[in-house]
Amino acid sequence: MSNPAALPKIAWIGLGIMGSPMSENLLKAGYPVTGFTLEQDKLDRLAAAGGTAAGSIAEAVKDADVVITMVPASPQVEAISYGPEGILENAKQGALIIDMSSITPQTSIDLAKNAAEKGIRVIDAPVSGGEAGAIEAVLSIMVGGEQADFDAALPILEALGKTIVLCGPHGSGQTVKAANQLIVAVNIQACAEAVVFLEKSGVNLQAALDVLNGGLAGSTVLTRKKDNFLNRDFKPGFRIDLHHKDMGIVTDAARNVGAALPVGAVVAQLVASLRAQGDGGLDHSALLRAVERLSGAQV
């Protein structure tokens, strides 16, 4: 391994379901990581893994060469980036921000513009692959920004994911992520409808899903979510609340560019209804619960 002193110093803001294992993968790769998040137990976890816990965003980013952010949505990205305690006021000139949150493309474009005025570079680098992908460091990472900044970030991103692609200028990573979330939601919904149909027909569900997954109906979604469906285990890998936010992003962005999403719009409403029924904290595979309710089950 290369001399750790030569590796860039990393500040990590946001140590949630995704951020904790991702930051630990950077520690395993030899990077020095200083982190900040709102939950003390997550800071303790980072320290236990060999990282440094900071008491504030300002403290975390002041010496960092690279600042990585992984927070839930646009308002949180704005909260951590702007203002006297935020990243832009406290990071050093020439630092690179890698925002791995899933937010609106416009928020990424605005952040890059505001950061450039401070001599700070930004790429948007949202991810797909969920908690399992984060733990296994096999995430798909879609990037928006300048080629030179992408090249600088690549060794770091390679410690976090497997498929890493520069998709275009600032905001492009978020646009591709929005498309990803559209495909995933519609795919889960189709799987959920099939599960209820199969069960009501008295078919062995395990056998049915195994054979379906071996053909054209197979997908990464079905592979990852099969056990959730079989066991009705909706412990969150990716919460309905967050997919609801993402469906808002994709339907809004599609309207802005004049693209019709007829099926996506229906699934967005199904996600919203699931949330309204109190299931927002469950995994997005819980779309199955909505189909069960519509099919007469007391869920």
TrEMBL record:
Protein name: 2-hydroxy-3-oxopropionate reductase
InterPro entries in the cross-refs: 6-PGluconate_DH-like_C_sf, 6PGD_dom2, 6PGDH_NADP-bd, HIBADH-like_NADP-bd, HIBADH-related, NAD(P)-bd_dom_sf, Tartro_sem_red
Annotated signal sequence range: none
Keyword NAD among record annotations: yes
Source organism of this protein record: Streptomyces bambusae
Residue ranges of the TM segments: none
Family, similarity comment: Belongs to the HIBADH-related family.
EC number of this enzyme: 1.1.1.60
Any one Pfam family match given in the protein's UniProt record, by short name: NAD_binding_2
3-hydroxyisobutyrate dehydrogenase-like NAD-binding domain boundaries: 171-290
GO molecular function, one term: 2-hydroxy-3-oxopropionate reductase activity
Residue span, 6-phosphogluconate dehydrogenase NADP-binding domain: 9-168
